[in-house]
């Protein structure tokens, strides 16, 4: 019996300890973590998986980024405790979180990982989307939560903008009647941002 719940502030220490256990020392020095610094996680998609006794067995997090100027989710890290690996918990957490992302209106997800593992979830290599160096381009993978969401996108993955204070929020851009959104996106996804991106392996970075 497992329980999947959104990560709460009370889970922070345990989740960080799980990531430290599963990944090599110095994981936060990866270029991907520069995308996350100072940017809030997508809280409703950051999940924990516990067994019936409340022991944390797996965790997954998502961060907002811009991919070729479009709104996207950056998946990771995802980790499963070494004693529970091979039981399908990573796949369970992946599918649950991706369904929540789709229901929440997100159009596209990307990650850096091993294609043979992530293909089972529908991820494919992104040929023209550039993660910051020294990321291996063969490991840059994307998933469409809306049909056509990755079609024609070319450019870098950048850091998401943090919302400006209310008093400084600029007016919404004027959209011409003849200006059509990119396939798989709505008009509010077009706001630009600047920054960079992350890395992970099967069942983690």
TrEMBL record:
Pfam families in the cross-refs = Acetyltransf_7 (PF13508)
Q: Which UniProt keywords apply?
A: Transferase
Task: List, for all copies, the residue spans of the domain called N-acetyltransferase.
Answer: 2-146
Natural source organism: Paracoccus siganidrum
Q: Where is the composition biased (Basic and acidic residues)?
A: 175-193
GO terms for molecular function, please?
acyltransferase activity, transferring groups other than amino-acyl groups
Name this polypeptide is given: N-acetyltransferase
Q: Which PROSITE patterns match?
A: GNAT
The keyword Cell membrane appears for this protein: no
Q: Where is this region: Disordered?
A: 161-205
CDD domains from the xrefs?
A: NAT_SF
């Amino acid at each position: 019996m497992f329980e999947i719940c959104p990560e709460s502030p009370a889970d922070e220490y345990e989740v960080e300890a799980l990531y430290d256990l599963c990944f090599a020392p110095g994981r936060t020095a990866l270029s991907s973590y520069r995308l996350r610094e100072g940017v809030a996680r997508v809280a409703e998609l950051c999940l924990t998986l516990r067994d019936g006794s409340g022991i944390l067995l797996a965790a997954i997090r998502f961060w907002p980024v811009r991919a070729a100027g479009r709104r996207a989710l950056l998946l990771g890290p995802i980790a499963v405790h070494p004693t529970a690996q091979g039981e399908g918990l990573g796949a369970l957490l992946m599918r649950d979180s991706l369904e929540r992302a789709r229901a929440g209106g997100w159009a596209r997800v990307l990650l850096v990982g091993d294609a043979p593992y992530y293909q089972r979830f529908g991820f494919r290599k992104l040929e023209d989307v550039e993660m910051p160096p020294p990321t291996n381009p063969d490991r840059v993978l994307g998933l469409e939560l809306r049909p056509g969401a990755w079609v024609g996108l070319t450019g870098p993955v950048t850091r998401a903008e943090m919302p400006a204070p209310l008093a400084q929020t600029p007016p919404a851009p004027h959209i011409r009647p003849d200006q059509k959104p990119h396939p798989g996106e709505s008009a509010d996804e077009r706001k630009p941002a600047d920054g960079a991106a992350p890395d992970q392996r099967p069942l983690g970075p």
